[in-house]
Amino acid sequence: MIRTLIIEDEKPAARKLERMLSLFPEIELVAKIESVEEGVEWFANNDHPQLIFSDIVLGDGLSFDIFEKISTKAFIIYTTAFDQYTLKAFKLNSIDYLLKPILDEDLSGAIEKFKSFLPDGNSGNVQEIKQLIKKDKTTLSRILVKIGYNLKIVQTQEVSCFFSENKIVYLQTQERNYPSDFTLDELEDVLDEKKFFRVNRQFIINSDFIKNIHTSPNYKVELNFQPADEITVSRERVKDFKDWLVGN
Predict the structure, then answer these.
(1) What number of helices (H) and strands (E) belong to the chain?
(2) Which pTM does this prediction carry?
(3) Does residue 217 have a cis bond before it (omega within 30 degrees)?
(4) I need a surface site. Which of 77, 161, 180, 193 has the fewest CB within 10 A?
């Protein structure tokens, strides 16, 4: 039996996931947790499960806060409506990342992935799983941005470029630019490399919005909408940039 825990603050979502998991005879649900505070207390006073299904955004914070306070060897399958937390999730023992609404086949696939690392019912190899995740990288398709007290979902396909300014990374859309919680290095790891390319230390651009490319005296890119007149491709990136253009 796989001792399993659910972390979810929305009761209907928790009940639905519990029903879905009840169809897997090898899953033994040991508890359901609704908040960061409850999670920290539960892990401090109970034997840890082997597998955790966890939402990310909880009423009193992010579920990441639990695992940054409590060390666990359990593997985590995140269940969330947003995919902007992918990179951080995979740094915290995550083996999969399921977007809501969860599909039966995706849930089954995630459980089978977990079981594949437990041939003898042992605890699995964290580094081996992380290597698998790198090969099967999830690309970022949506970003959650904050505007005052409001949240907005921006599709990455709507972003002409990401740029760094005063230590903050912004994403540029036709409407405006929005601050994000990412670094450009993190974005390089999770954006679709067929669409996005880092031309220099400050900019990652989207090929769909390239308006013009000047080759003299330096390679400079003009986008349909951007925060600068032209974006210069760094010398060391010119060859890779041309290869990327041909690949697209």
Answers:
(1) 8, 17
(2) 0.55
(3) yes
(4) 193
